[in-house]
Amino acid sequence: MTEFAIQATDVVKKFGDFTAIDGINLSVPKGCIYGFLGPNGCGKSTTIRTLTGLLSPTSGQVNVLGLSIPKESEALRLKIGYMTQKFSLYDDLSVEENLEFIGQIFGMEKQTLLQRITEQLSTYGLDQLRKQRVSGMSGGQKQRLSLAAATMHKPELLFLDEPTSAVDPENRRDFWEQLFDLSDKGTTILITTHYMDEAERCHRLAIMESGVIRADGEPETLMANMGVNIVEVKTDNLRALKNTLIQRNEIRSAAQIGIRLRVLIHQDISDPISWLRSEFPELKDAEMNIARPSLEDVFVTVTGKGRQ
Ligand SMILES: Nc1ncnc2c1ncn2[C@@H]1O[C@H](COP(=O)(O)OP(=O)(O)OP(=O)(O)O)[C@@H](O)[C@H]1O
C-alpha cells in the first residue's frame, strides 16, 4: 500500500471574497518529488502555506505526515523544511552563523549542531565560504546555503517554493542533483515552479490554474494522455496561418517556435498531416512532421491558454 506524506481533500482557501484555492485534492506519496506547475498567482504559494499550517484552510481536510493540519502544525514544524524564493537568510550573519542560528531554533545540542554544520557545509560546497557574510554572496551560493538551512534538522518533508527562480541554468541543474540525493535518502519533496524543464524532472506533477488542479500524474503519463497529436509545420506566413488554424475546433492550439508552427490536433483525427494538407490549401507543399509531446503541450492542453 502506498504511504502518503501529504493528503489534502477538498481544500478551499479564501481571502475575503477571493478564492485563492478552490477545492484541491492532493495525495503525495512518501519519498516522491512532487511538482506544482502553474503561472504566477495561480495559488501555488497559498497551497504550500496551507499544507505547512502557516495558513488555515477555509474548508477541507489536510493531513501531513500523519498530523492533522492546522491543529497539529506545531508538531509538524519540527518534521518539515521550508525554503521560499526569497531564501530567508540573515544578510548580516556569516554562512556558518546562519546554519548555527537555524540549528538553535530547532533545539539542536551544541555538539550535534557543530557536527551537522560541518556536514552541511561539505554537502552543499560551502566550506570555503563558512566565514562569508550572506550579503556578499551570489544567487547560486545563497540558494545552496538556503537548502542547507532548510535541511539542517533532517526534515522528512521539504517544501520548496520556486527555489530556482533567482539562479542561472547551471546552478539550477546542480540544485536538482541535490534534490535527487535528498529524495534517494527518503525525503519527500514538494516543489513549485513555472519552468517546464524543471517540472519534467519531478516524479509526479500537478498542473494548477486559477486555484484549481487541472491535471496530475507522472509527467510521461500526462504527456501520453493529452488527447492530441502534434504536428510541426515549416512554411511561409506563419502568423497568418496560425490565425487561420486556430479557428477550427479540431485544432487545440498553434504556437510559433522559431521558424515552425507547433500545432496540437485532436487525437480523433487519425492522420493529422494528411488532414492538414486536405483542409488547408496553403499547406499543400509545406514541410510537416509529427513531433514528440512536451510538458508545455500538456500545460497548454489542460489550461485556458489553449483556447486563445
Ligand atoms: N494574504 C493574502 N491576501 C489576499 N490575497 C492573497 C493573499 N495571498 C495570496 N493572495 C492572492 O491569491 C492568489 C494566489 O497567490 P499565490 O501567491 O498563492 O500564487 P502563486 O501561484 O504562488 O504565484 P507566484 O508564482 O507569483 O508566487 C493571488 O491572486 C494573490 O494575489
TrEMBL record:
GO terms, molecular function: ATP binding; ATP hydrolysis activity
Domain (ABC transporter): residue spans on this chain: 6-235
Domain of life where this protein originates: Bacteria
Pfam families according to UniProt: ABC_tran (PF00005)
CDD domains xrefs: ABC_DR_subfamily_A
The UniProt record lists the keyword ATP-binding: yes
Gene3D superfamilies xref list: P-loop containing nucleotide triphosphate hydrolases
Keyword Signal annotated: no
Keyword entries, A-Z: ATP-binding, Nucleotide-binding
Annotated InterPro entries: AAA+_ATPase, ABC_transporter-like_ATP-bd, ABC_transporter-like_CS, P-loop_NTPase
Name used for this protein in its record: ABC transporter ATP-binding protein
Species of provenance: Aliivibrio finisterrensis
Organismal lineage: Bacteria, Pseudomonadati, Pseudomonadota, Gammaproteobacteria, Vibrionales
